[in-house]
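dude i think i finally got it to work??
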Amino acid sequence: HQLVGTSESSGIAENPVVLQLGGNDSKKLGMAAAIGAAYGQGEYSEINLNCGCPSNAVGGRAGGCALMKESELVARCVESMNVGVRSVSMPDSNSAPGITVKHRLGVRDAFTYDAAEDRAKNDEEAFSEGSEFNSTVAWGGDVTKFHVHARLGLLGEFTEDDDNDDEDDVVDSERRKKERPKQSLWVPGVDNGLPKAQSIGKIDHKREQERARRRARKATIKNREVPPLRPNVINQLADEFHQYEFVSNGQIGSLGDV
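look at this
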């Protein structure tokens, strides 16, 4: 209940509710979809596979928008999810949740990504990548609805100058560079001129972990702001694939935007 339950604080039944799953193991996703369908008993209108999250914590495990690089794997995952849902649904039931996919328009390496170059492009490349992904994922008939965040997903670390959150961090970073002995890779048979005890400086692991978390948060924010939004691509996809439903996502901050 804690994992798949819905809020009851308002005293009003929420509807529609979509259960989103993340991962890249088709067998586990099929089992999870079955659990969601069985628990919901018609409560969930859809079970969605997340192929749109650019977080390093997710993408580093080959989930989220990293899955866009493996569209055939996504096709196997949604097939397994569909099988899982059908296994716990009544044969004549219309309440079985549909399988949907949320994705971006493609993925790029954050470190080498050139935002100015990307903004200068038209929508042709983005449409081509999105179209290929949709075709492959929906080939088996397991998906008829796509939620599209109409911009690229940037994976990995951004450039090093984005590493510091504020001025204090910059000052502290410079201080640590001066105080910490030079780090050196030891090569057999080569004298690097440093006492072995000083070859590697002391590392504050807790601090480094916190810095990594900060970079991950900043990367997530950048992924919502830096790559240009291309909502017209969603219209093009909808025109190309009349048999599928497309939902526009990204940079919708108010009812007026909707």
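The helical segments are 26-40, 56-59, 71-87, 115-119, 124-137, 167-179, 205-223, 231-240.
im so relieved honestly
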